[in-house]
Amino acid sequence: MQAQKDTVIASVDTLPGNYFLLRSVERNGETLPEIDIKEVVIIGRESTSKKFPFYKYQRLVFNLKKVYPYSQIVRARLAEANNELMKLPDDKERRKYLRKFEKELFGEYEDDVRGMTITQGRLLIKLIYRETYNTSYELIRQYRGAFSAAFWQGIARIFGSDLKAEYDPFGEDAIMELILMEIEAGNL
Prior knowledge:
By secondary structure, this protein is mainly alpha-helical.
């Protein structure tokens, strides 16, 4: 009798084949069913009555998708350069290696970076900080010197950017962080 009842329920089901496998978990002496669900992130609205415009969000997603791979490249190449610099015995060899390394990078990525918009450049500066925990200014100063860093900071300021900009995933860059988490998860 019970078997007939189960088959009737299965034939009435509108979504056959869609089911969740529950696993048993023991908590406080009780065995309970459990299922994994996706993480949900909730962000409170700003105090103003204006909503974040959807077109701005779409534009931010577009720009981040274009710029994020370059920040990953910067992180990887920086680690590669640091490992190689640790192996070199003296400053002369290090300077020679850095000149060669810089020339290779410019040859490979200069056209792509020059083709970026000012907004994409600002995002890249923040993403470099996110990936390396160093501002772009600090990286230039470390590898090229204080004069070069000051020069490029001046150029950036002319275009309304700041090489000393830091990434704040819990403050002004919270929406960027959520978008980046979606990109990293492969959802965008």
